[in-house]
Amino acid sequence: MKLVEHFATGLDAPICLTWELTYACNLACLHCLSSSGRRDPRELSTEECKTVIDELQRMQVFYVNIGGGEPTVRSDFWELVDYATAHQVGVKFSTNGVRIDAAAARRLAASDYVDVQISLDGATAEVNDAVRGAGSFDMALAALQHLADAGFRDAKISVVCTRQNIGQLDLFKELADRYGATLRLTRLRPSGRGADVWDEMHPTMAQQRELYDWLVAHGEGVLTGDSFFHLSAFGSALPGLNLCGAGRVVCLIDPVGDVYACPFAIHDAFLAGNVRTAGFQEVWQRSELFAELREPQSGGACSSCQHYDACQGGCMAAKFFTGLPLDGPDPECVQGYGELALASVTSAPKPTGDHSHRGGVRGGPVPVSIGRHPESRPVSACEENPLAGLTV
Amino acid sequence: MLALHPQVSVRPEPFGALLYHFGTRRLSFLKDRRLLDVVRRLDGATSVDEALSDVPAGERAAFRSALATLEKTGMLQ
Fold first, then answer.
1. How many CB pairs (< 8 A) connect A and B?
2. What is the value of pTM for the model shown?
3. Comparing C-alpha atoms, which of A28, A18, A202, A192 is closest to residue A94?
């Protein structure tokens, strides 16, 4: 059996695990995959988080990817990071940079077991702030500067690839090089608020090709979190496992302790259990949902496609939240089968939870639509209304 | 004498084992349970040959090459 086939049948513990510590966030990014904004009153307490870490240590989960929301706004954030690294659980955390001041950067530089990912969705303030909110570009760059000044080595710049920023790939690389950072590119998913902006933000087919060629040219020097395996159907496989790891090698623990098959699948259909009631190990090893995901999967409509071995039918969450069957093509199938399938979709499932800010957020992104102002509509030559064109 | 790097953690799995190096953040896979046994025996053995003593002679070259790869990637030192 090939190694990747072992992975498909599941491991005793995940290789890596995403743990979102809070739904609270100072930003309101348009494409937030977890619809974050407001803290959930049921979020795990400090002691409950430590119990989870103890369990991860026993299961030898080598590291966790901590995110949110914005994880650093939890008042016990550093306490939990220290607790994890003291218990042989390495930490990689994603942040928008809001709490990465000079002191935090020095603290991070002093630890051998913490990695930092600063999120940025545009290589210029104009492109970034339209999605992440006014001032978020400068905030992220200030954090990167603090990290560089403190001697923190190899920070990551984490970018969700969109229609608006694919043309900036070289600029992102230059930016990363300037701070001694590594670029990490990931795929936009129609998850959370991402579903609302998917049609406007997901890359065009031509851009997918551009991205694929760029990734092939840059090889392992650019990280992808294995998120672009659907692009492997363009030709040779990209570095990484090229496998949907949901419930097999990865999963998500959300802020209230719910365990989902993957970070992009916050929906009851992918909820395996809760760490409060069962403990994480029990959920990982015995949940019915994960057992199902570890069964051999049918390629369905894709199994007759010559590229199926390369792309494995793509991303489960991307299919689910665009209303496509899980055993068919990915909505961004590079052979075009996804677009065909999407044409007959009438409705798509909504995410289960929504913690979005209810009102506006200061400096938050304002979605704009391009269109003609109704008042300035030119008067048609065939207009019969005697008051046409008159403004008072 | 070759041994596991002190920052490397080993997690047995049905297919063999996962190795994670906390220093380099590199993940490696041992695709054979017997290779895991050999890696574990390195600690306490006086030579690589001794650690390989249970491996059939015809397979030792493959095991040596696997060990060399692990050394090159810093998992063994």
1. 35
2. 0.90
3. A18
